């Protein structure tokens, strides 16, 4: 009898919850109907945390259950569906479709015209910043703000990305890439060793580059130049040095904090502090230590700038120094609070951190993915090497020159390789937008006017639109003898799943795009806001339509570090391929000695096995945790002096 009351309460509660669920779903369904956008209904909000946690366990069963397995919502409800299904989901459901759920309605689009409208209507389609809220670890910043707050941040965070700073990025990338290559090939340059995860090294490289360009702190490469007495005297950091007052080295706290960022974001401080786990304790320590380092750098820059009354050009070269100098904090009557249009100290730290977060994995992964693709496509690699030879004419790296050498890299095969890598594997697969708080919005979808109902989540699907055959030059899919189509479901009848940088170069019909008056208005407004709208290169190359190529997003909230990242990536590729080639490791099938004895045909066979396996991993083993990268398994790679390759099949 005693159980009756709890039982009744439980039943009542369940009934109430079910009612809420059903009525919300019904209201959302009515919204979808009046919108005019094609929709499907899903029983769960796919970004619900509980669902995201359970989905990997449930999916395999749901995919087998009759009545459920064929439901379209199942295809678009896994956490990483846009990457798993690629363009396939849009081929089935349309380039723009809505998912009706018991929480929000969500629009997903792989339609360039739609993406272009949304990225250029900043007030109508703001970022759903609740998604980013927790990134305020060290202070409010440009990524986590919206509206007038965002404008204030953007005004101060955009100007530091100057050509001068890009010079620094170029110089430091050449220096760090040389060290990375030295690690791979040894100080004697003999090479030959197979490396299991070059991604770790690319991460180190990008971290070192951001440290230099962001804070003007050089980091030394463990085992390569970290015994450089001169550099250490000049203030360079190495993993071995723990300065007075610190418990962790500069480099280690920075990298540990970034690599355990999810833990630091999710776990409350008491849990990290008291839970008996070294992993958590170290994450916590790294978080605090990095905060301390940033504060010290801030203070020393602030003092130097103050002393020189803001005229010290060296201190303004890096991103943090430039932010301090235009923050208003150097004014004599400045307080610590943001004054009108300026930034506060904590906001400068917040932005410095968010630059690292935004620029670290994204750029590193792009370098790694380009190396994967080049190892799988030796013919392209050889053409790249020839082009690099033409550009640098054998000059030593110390004589490479930003003003002279960057543009030819940009406008040639190197640029096309970077573009194509980011087309096939965009680090940010979905760019979130919304009309939360901005009310019903008109939108043109498929040439027809529709309504985006109030409070809709919107996903701009970079990985989808960048393989939509409507917008991209394409040829037939790979032939069966050569392995067949690259993906089992997406773009089966064309080559858009394949890595083919030539598609950026071979467009005989390319003609300059006319700017419409709307475009011009949007551009002027954007430029006033410090958004870089300059096209990357001359228009003799293939230029995708607006909204079709969005690895850096587009419009007002486009990436601040686009040029920074491009300079870093191109410089790094140039250093590597000026002297070395990258090849797939074949150790799983044959060791060095066996390969040595093989004839041409046998070698090709073993290489093909390695290529098939690498392709499989790029296809099936990537996943998103903040950014997209290989999550399962490794793609072993080896570096060979040019001319000493084992698998250079054209
Ligand atoms: C290949 C490398 C990179 C890629 C693919 C990339 C991509 C993106 C994308 C897609 C966005 C929009 C995100 C969103 O709307 O949710 C973004 C924003 C941003 N990125 Fe990058 N990024 C890269 C490198 C960098 C670097 C190196 C930096 C800085 C050093 C940087 C700083 C930023 C910042 C500050 C924003 C926020 C801009 C705003 O909201 O106004 N990014 N990036
Ligand atoms: C980059 O390196 C060149 C040559 O070593 C040097 O002249 C130039 O001042 C450097 N630029 C920056 C911004 O560090
Ligand atoms: C690969 O990465 C792991 C984890 O970051 C690291 O422990 C390991 O030493 C790396 N392996 C190589 C060969 O660099
Ligand atoms: C790379 O993409 C950008 C952006 O669409 C374009 O302007 C540029 O011409 C492309 N570069 C090459 C070499 O195709």
UniProtKB/TrEMBL annotation:
Heme binds at residue 559. Its cofactor is heme. Residues 473-492 are annotated as: Disordered. It comes from the Eukaryota. GO terms for molecular function: heme binding; iron ion binding; monooxygenase activity; oxidoreductase activity, acting on paired donors, with incorporation or reduction of molecular oxygen. Keywords: Heme, Iron, Metal-binding, Monooxygenase, Oxidoreductase. PROSITE patterns: CYTOCHROME_P450 (PS00086). Belongs to the cytochrome P450 family. This is P450 monooxygenase.
